[in-house]
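Each field is set out as follows.
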Amino acid sequence: IRRRSGSPPLVRCWDGAIRKAMLPVLEAEARVLWTTMGGDRSYARTNWIGAKDPPRCGLERLALAVMHFHYPPTARRAVVGCEFWTQLRESGNALEKQGLSLHYDKDERAVETWDIWAHPELGTATYLTGGGAPLVVFSTRSHEDGSSSEDEPPKEEQADVEAVPERASVCFPRAGRHIAFDGRLLHGVPEELLTLTKKGQPSASKRDATGVALPKGAEYSSRLAFLVNVWTSHRPEGVGKLPKKLAEKLAGAARAAAAAARQKRRGAGGGVRQALALRRGQRQLAPWKRLVAVPAATGRDRFRFAGRLLP
């Protein structure tokens, strides 16, 4: 369960990363983006904003703010830009549609066309609502770019996502929570862990992330995440900027949500500037150490790993 001395953690996590008044505003934009350019269980339709591009809506502004938080000005010169998208999962969906397959983030077009694997330097997730299955980031690292993992020895099939991991970080969604990890790491949203208890074991009944039983019908409503990958090598093939009309539509949804929030409670603000509340050097969450069991349909454990649980 202990990580090696000097080895960095798999995941860095902060709560309260988004100002509370800005959550409904960004959620409104994210829902419009999902409705317009959503994806499915294995594929995401992503968008691009260059490191020096002026933002036209709140989500573009947030993507750049995420990049600025993780990269100080001296390191920012190496950043080409940010790939971003939204991901929505609903509690009313079938269980198999409440998760996301294990995968590596990569330049999808380059893999399909030339069988060349390239990965973002940094992967991030910012949650605009709470609830749903957790993000699991495994110690399994892609070796397709010629790198090697200090955590696990190279395998004959280096891109095999079915390899059993040795350890992982399990991070449950919380509104305003921000997560960052190495862009080469294997990750996904296993719906099997939707009922994970605080002891790291699956539960037959619906429970929240801290293991407290939920009454029937009181499960989460939606799991809405804003994903940003920071690229330093190149702009992924086929990933374009938001169309102008769509950016204007997102900005309009944000203005409407801000106006509604002002009517509901005063002082909600009229825009989405400075939505990110993180400051450099801000303390990260300390995870619990747990042995996590991933169940299989047969009732037996699919596999186990030494986990760091962020409920």
Remarks:
- The longest strand covers residues 81-90.
